[in-house]
Design goal:
Helix content: 40-55%
Order of helices and strands: HEHHHHEEEHEEHEHE
Strand content: 15-25%
Shape: elongated
Largest sheet: 6 strands, antiparallel
């Protein structure tokens, strides 16, 4: 009952979202996001009067300390000036892997700041580990085989894929990929934030099971990250006493 109430609260939150929201499209580890916003709050508090446009050139100097670059990115992200946005865009184009995620977040944050200023309307930001596209969030889905040691046959694999694609269409969802392994199959899909996630995927399982009852009614859904095989097996093996990481849900009737 508690999980059901939590799920309903989340759905209600999404349904009540105003139209002026932005979704972080890139897949960025949640720990990186949390660190970014943690340092962002500190920088804004400690360096409120600092003009980071004066330090923008240091972003492009290889010798500049990584932490200093992160601070400059955050400072520019909070600067209501098109010059700051252009600088962030330019840096993102050449950013190395160790700081690229920070640059993406800074560009997103500054874009929203400029939109708020130009439109005189507060912008809202939704970010998950798996990102999204447009007004849709990306989800990682795991369908569990009733035969935990077996691989779905070709007919069953085609059925799951076809039913998933078909089930996404009425809610304007998008199919991205699907993979089949012993004991389960995994998929990446995009769904509008207002979509009834439980209903969409439960219907897929129900339709598939009319042709052999080969999928468990339980499934794993997350928008935090792509799970490893060991992580999936660990969750599956705890079916009756799930201890899921933050952001994971087990759906069941």
């Amino acid at each position: 009952m508690k999980d059901e109430e939590f799920y309903n609260d989340i759905q209600k939150l999404f349904e009540d979202l105003p139209g002026n929201f932005n979704i972080l499209e890139e897949q960025i580890d949640l720990e990186v996001q949390m660190k970014y916003f943690e340092i962002s709050r500190k920088v804004r508090d400690d360096e409120a009067e600092k003009n980071y446009l004066e330090f923008a050139d240091e972003l492009f100097i290889p010798e500049t300390d990584l932490d200093q670059k992160k601070e400059i990115l955050i400072g520019l992200a909070g600067t209501d000036d098109v010059k700051a946005y252009r600088t962030l865009e330019k840096f993102l184009e050449q950013a190395s892997s160790e700081i690229r995620s920070w640059a993406v977040l800074a560009v997103q944050e500054n874009r929203m700041l400029l939109q708020t200023s130009l439109l005189d309307e507060q912008q809202f930001f939704i970010s998950t580990g798996l990102g999204g596209k447009g007004k849709k969030l990306r989800y990682y889905l795991v369908f569990i085989n009733r035969n935990r040691n077996g691989l779905l046959n070709k007919t069953q694999q085609k059925l799951v894929k076809d039913e998933l694609i078909f089930g996404l269409k009425p809610v304007e969802g998008e199919f991205e990929s699907i993979d089949f392994s012993e004991g389960f199959c995994t998929s990446l899909v995009l769904l509008p934030v207002t979509a009834d996630i439980k209903k969409v995927f439960s219907n897929v399982v129900e339709e598939c099971n009319q042709y052999g009852d080969f999928l468990e009614e339980d499934m794993i859904i997350t928008n935090v990250k792509v799970l490893s095989r060991n992580e999936i097996l660990d969750i599956v093996n705890k079916q009756n006493n799930l201890e899921l990481p933050d952001g994971l849900e087990e759906e069941e009737d």
